[in-house]
Design brief:
Number of strands: 0
Shape: elongated
Structural class: mainly alpha
Largest sheet: none
Strand content: under 5%
Distance between the termini: 109 Å
Order of helices and strands: HHHHHHHHHHHHHHHHHHHH
Oligomer: single chain
Helix content: 55-70%
Length: about 350
């Protein structure tokens, strides 16, 4: 009996040992996950900036175990928490060389969930883009482009402005996606977009001069000044800027005044034909009829669009006026408008 008792005792002791060993292994394997959960709790509940910074730094240092909690912070955290999380990641990025694969890995971590981030989180993540763009990995660049796209579609104006500035970074090249923000309700966003796509750049313009003319009549005076500066930088003269303002003015009376300017234009205007052709497509019938008259009076070459007005314009008054002036002058052929 004593021998059998000792045998059972050994077995029980061995069992407890195995249980303890397994428990120790489980704890060791999950220590990082437990640390991440606790640091995430600290980040959510911290009241002092120093405590938020410490908790965010712990999460960033935990790498793969900490990144899900940081992403969750960007989804649901307030502005101070998101800023602390971004600052911790910036510090981690700052010590990495461009060839370090961790740069691309961090970029990829936030690419897919980016469209689920709250406004504060999106703003914070955009602050990481300059550091991530140092990576030599094309995957990091692709991730940065996606983060900037999310920023361009964000609701807060200040986030969109930050994204617009990043959209012009080499490699990001999202100029064309900035163009819709020229019509944003916020004048600060419109101004930032004009600064981005208005002045001439190294490559082809993503918006033409005639399209820019509309912002010469923007409700905001700052936007109007920026538009004028952009057109001047593109080589437009003061007269052309003034013409462009009238050409796109919402009041048809101002567009009719442009017809008088064009009729008596001096040598400063090289070719009034393109302007008149554009006015020949004006939504107001009186402007279209006036454009046909001035085109004939100026003896424009290549003005077949006057014939088209006389034959096809939906307004009978325009057809009569264009037909009358077309019959008075037979040496008129096509004048196209190229926006220049």
């Amino acid at each position: 009996m004593h021998g059998r008792g000792r045998s059972w005792a050994k077995r029980i002791g061995l069992g407890f040992g195995l249980v303890a060993l397994a428990a120790g292994g489980f704890a060791a394997a999950n220590r990082s996950a437990l640390q991440a959960r606790y640091a995430a709790y600290q980040l959510r509940t911290a009241a002092a900036p120093a405590d938020r910074a410490a908790a965010a730094a712990k999460l960033a240092a935990l790498g793969d175990d900490g990144f899900p909690a940081l992403a969750e912070c960007f989804r649901t955290g307030d502005a101070p928490a998101c800023a602390a999380a971004a600052d911790a990641l910036k510090a981690r990025l700052a010590g990495l060389p461009p060839t370090d694969p961790a740069l691309a890995a961090i970029a990829a971590r936030f690419r897919d969930p980016a469209d689920t981030f709250g406004p504060a989180g999106t703003d914070a993540v955009l602050g990481l883009v300059p550091g991530l763009l140092r990576s030599s990995d094309p995957a990091a660049l692709a991730a940065c482009r996606e983060l900037v796209r999310v920023g361009l579609a964000a609701a807060p104006a200040d986030v969109k402005v930050r994204a617009i500035r990043l959209a012009l970074r080499p490699g990001v090249n999202l100029d064309a996606e900035v163009v819709p923000l020229l019509s944003d309700p916020d004048p600060g966003v419109r101004s930032a977009a004009l600064l981005a796509v208005g002045p001439p750049g190294d490559g082809p313009a993503v918006i033409g001069d005639e399209e820019l003319f509309g912002w010469l009549n923007d409700p905001d005076p700052g936007v109007r000044r920026l538009c004028e500066s952009a057109l001047t930088a593109r080589g437009r003269s003061a007269d052309e800027v003034a013409f462009g303002r009238k050409l796109t003015h919402p009041d048809a009376g101002e567009r009719l005044k442009l017809l008088l300017d064009l009729r008596w234009a001096d040598d400063a205007v090289k070719d009034v034909g393109p302007w008149l052709e554009r006015l020949g497509r004006d939504p107001d019938p009186a402007v279209r009829a006036g454009a046909a008259r001035v085109a004939v009076e100026c003896r424009l070459p290549f003005a077949a669009w006057v014939d088209k007005l006389a034959a096809e314009d939906p307004d009978p008054m325009v057809r009569r006026v264009a037909g009358y002036y077309r019959r008075t002058e037979s040496g008129v052929s096509q004048a196209g408008y190229d926006g220049r």
